[in-house]
Specification:
elongated, four-stranded antiparallel β-sheet, 121 residues
Length: 121
């Protein structure tokens, strides 16, 4: 298993008091013994001022297939919209684990899942 794309989105979950920016993480099955696509894979993101209160869980991808996990992250203040934070993305499938470093961009938002950015408070 390997981690492909890591994409900051304009989507948010959580509440106005504790917004969670949604980050899309693509997990690819590469045939290295990571299963047949039936086991769970837990995806989390961490870094300085970045946490994953509830890791995302997806079914592990079969060799040659991909799955996208939507991970809700919290960013500690100060985190100005447009600023980037270095993070480590971890996909843990029990028998197989993948890590990747990435830079995430802080988006503007006050919570509530939306296809558009929320206006700053």
């Amino acid at each position: 298993m390997r981690i492909g794309d890591v994409t900051s989105t304009m989507l948010f979950a959580g509440t106005a008091a504790r917004p969670r920016q949604i980050v899309q993480v693509t997990i690819a099955g590469d045939g290295d013994g990571d299963g047949d696509g039936t086991g769970p894979v837990t995806v989390s993101i961490s870094g300085a001022g970045v946490s994953t209160p509830e890791p995302a869980t997806v079914t592990g991808p079969a060799p040659g297939a991909e799955r996208v996990a939507e991970v809700g992250i919290e960013l500690a203040a100060p985190a100005a919209p447009g600023s980037a934070r270095p993070v480590t993305v971890i996909a843990d499938g029990g028998a197989s684990r993948a890590e990747r470093r990435a830079d995430l961009t802080k988006r503007s938002g006050r919570g509530g899942r939306s296809g558009r950015p929320d206006q700053p408070a």
